[in-house]
Specification:
With about 110 residues, the protein is mainly alpha-helical. It is built from 5 helices and 2 strands; from the N terminus they run ααααββα. The chain has a two-stranded antiparallel sheet. A hairpin with a 4-residue loop joins strand 1 and strand 2. Helix 2 packs antiparallel against helix 4.
């Protein structure tokens, strides 16, 4: 049953489970010890398999984006931008921009 596979997706978060509950029009509790494959069959999850697949796919894509965002955030953590001050105009000029541009390109922010 493809719907069961989608419901086992490790990337499903609470927000996705809320969408699943709304799609199935039931208060599904996968942590309930009484919850079984028969419960899913009784809910007729296969009738909503396309909707469930879409939610699971969205969860996987969101997880990948979150992973990429963390990688970018981690790579910029503690990075300091260097500036030179022009005192007579109270202006700061960014220096070392070559390194910044390279890093922006490496992290796909440019």
């Amino acid at each position: 049953m493809p719907a069961v596979t989608d419901l086992r997706c490790q990337d499903l978060k609470d927000r996705h489970w809320d969408q699943i509950r709304e799609t199935l029009k039931t208060d599904i509790d996968v942590l309930d010890p009484e919850f079984t494959l028969k419960s899913l069959i009784d809910m007729r999850v296969n009738d909503k398999k396309d909707d469930l697949a879409e939610i699971a796919l969205k969860a996987k894509k969101e997880a990948e984006l979150e992973k990429q965002l963390k990688e970018v955030t981690d790579s910029w953590e503690g990075e300091e931008l260097k500036t030179n001050e022009i005192k007579e105009k109270d202006i700061f000029i960014l220096t070392g921009v070559e390194d910044i541009i390279t890093k922006l390109e490496d992290t796909h922010l440019c």
